[in-house]
Amino acid sequence: MGRLNNKESEFIADFIKRYNKLETISDGIENAYLIMKDCYLNGGKLIIAGNGGSCADSEHIVGELMKSFKLPRPIDKSLEQKLVQTDPKRGQYLSGILESPLTAVSLTCSTALISAYTNDAAADAVYAQQVLGMGKPNDVFIGITTSGNSENILNAAVTAKAMGLRVIGLTGKDGGKLAPLCDAAVIVPENETYKIQEFHLPIYHLWCMMLEDNFFG
To answer: What CATH architecture applies to the domain 6-66+101-216?
Structure first.
């Protein structure tokens, strides 16, 4: 895993100016970003999960990564040609509107699977089951839990580590039981849930912006 380049360092510095309370965790924010960057450089994907507001955050992150966040993301020219060869009219249309993704998956969206596994097996392993089904060694699991103690996130993190995935925790308070399982733990210096979540959003927006700039800037 490398270090930040000059532009990435500028992104972090500007962020800390705007959110100076997070200066104490800037190393964790940086390390988590570098893990995600390395994941994408090696053809991996992000697998993300949370509960409640953190569930919404996991889907929010996917929405920022799978399409343009701030910058244009044209698709590869060879794919454009193949689209047109497959169907000249639709291919021309698609080549103009499709955007290159940074592949990310939220484990919170598979309603049928979640309800079936919860009913048939165990609710606290529903994210672990999905990690087992889709995780690959170059992937990264991001667990979002304000307490760091959500059982379904902990079980998913243990499964991810056992499978060779790296784990990032986005938490608060003291990091809870999740922190020791993480390759990078970003522990927001707040104790109340809503205050922790208020800091989570700008942190993952920063990650999405930096990743996009690195791969499409």
So the answer is: 3-Layer(aba) Sandwich (3.40)
